[in-house]
Amino acid sequence: MIEIMSKSHIYELKVYVEDVDFGRVFYSRYLQYIERARTELIHEKFGLSLTQLMNEHDTMFVVRKCNIKYLKSAVFEDNLSVETVVLKKTNVRLNLLQEVKRGGEVLVSAEVELAVLNRSGSIKKLSKDFFAKI
User: Fold this and answer.
1) What's the domain count of the chain?
2) How far is residue 101 CA from its own chain's centroid?
3) According to a count of CB atoms within 10 Å of the terminal CB, is the N or C end of the chain lower?
4) Is the whole-model pTM more than 0.70?
5) Could you read off the pLDDT of 3-32 as tens digits, one per residue?
6) For residue 44, what are the contacts with CB-CB under 8 A and spacing of at least 6?
């Protein structure tokens, strides 16, 4: 396993009324926010959409494990960012730290483990080219 100390990826978003319940962001929305951030990270690193990654390279990333900590709530119209850092990588697995922030304040922290699979759901090794880009 290789330890990574690379720069982080930042995804920015705004909280809309559909995201809130009783004035606060509903807890499951944070999972959607970090999923969107991972999608943008993959697009930025590989220059491919998730559909292209699957159709052209028979590769997909699926969540194997997610440990999420809710520290503070975001509210309607907050401007947030999701910072993603690759903590560890192997040819078949990625470990990420994803933090949802308001300014510099961490609201939610998630440790996410992704498995690399092919379209039939079997474990697949990342190509050397893809591995190098992460």
Assistant:
1) 1
2) 14
3) N
4) yes
5) 454 579 999 999 999 999 999 999 999 999
6) 9
